[in-house]
Amino acid sequence: MPGLTQKALQAMATVLAILVVGLMVLAAIYVRQDRLLYFPAPATVANVATAELRAWPSAQDFRGLVAEPAGAVRGTAIVFHGNAGHVGDRAFYAHALAPLGLRVILAEYPGYGPRAGALGEASCVADAEQTVALAHRQYGGPLLLVGESLGAAVAAAAAVANPQRRELTAGLLLITPWDRLAHVGAHHYPWLPVKWMLRDEYDTQARLAGFDRPVLVAVAERDSIVPARFGRALHAGLAGPKRLVVIEAADHNDWTDRVDAGWWRAAVAFALGVESWE
To answer: Residues near 32 by Cβ (< 8 Å), separated by ≥ 6?
Structure first.
């Protein structure tokens, strides 16, 4: 270029190279973002099913695990677990909820554990809606949807995905949830244009804007993965019956050690619309 010194040309070439590399990195992240968002663990049905938690609805058509309460059944809780691992790691939900008279279905995601299928929001939400519909056909109501972290977004989406089936959900128990996945992504990757790169939005706040059933939002006070402020924001935007519960001193993955049977009893009672949180 006329008038530019060799030094200026070299500087421009360096800047251009940096931009090209940066764009290539962003493109690679965009294409491979499923590997940054989802952490499934493979397993067989034999690995995850037990005498207590049997394959549901069957080993051949596996969608998750089911546990029956010892006495009378007051309803069915469908649990959508957190991101990593598979349903075989979530027996603690059955141990907490079955003594309350709830049948417990631990729902598995496509691509996780023994299940084939594509990862992603569209796949997870459509599959969760099918799970809710199947549970209602098989067992009737009331249905309590329980979700943890990623599962909170899936449970909320399944509850409102089909307007004709919204009455199937008696209430929601959302544990360590977010309002919008983009906010969590921007928290962890502030140097990335997360809002523009995400294919899966998981906008729980928008989805639950018109939801009129009870929603209990439980946040971990010291959550380092999904900071509590995002769960608080979700709760603030809810229009229906709602309750915010802070699990004191808890982080994202140790909250189960900081709640007891009384906590579960009160949480379920509120989410089912039976009584207020004491």
So the answer is: none
238 contact partners, CB below 8 Å, separation of at least 6 = 208, 211, 215, 217
Say if 182 falls within a structural domain. Answer: yes
User: CB count, 10 Å around CB of 256?
Assistant: 15
> How far is 7 from 16, CA to CA, in rounded Å?
14
pLDDT in tens, 24-52: 444 444 555 556 678 889 999 999 999 89
Q: Which amino acid would we find at residue 177?
A: P
- List % helix, strand, coil for the chain (3-state, nearest 5): 45, 20, 35
pLDDT tens-digit readout, 208-226: 999 999 999 999 999 999 9
**Boundaries of domain holding 146:** 40-271
For residue 191, what are its two tokens? 């140097």
Between strands 75-80 and 54-57, the pairing is unpaired
Tokens describing residue 58: 């069957």
278 assigned to some structural domain: no
Q: Would you say residue 276 lies in a domain? A: no
Closest by CA to 84, choosing from 147, 40, 117, is 40
pLDDT in tens, 224-243: 999 999 999 999 999 999 99
Average pLDDT score over residue span 143-157: 97
Paired tokens of 9: 């040309």
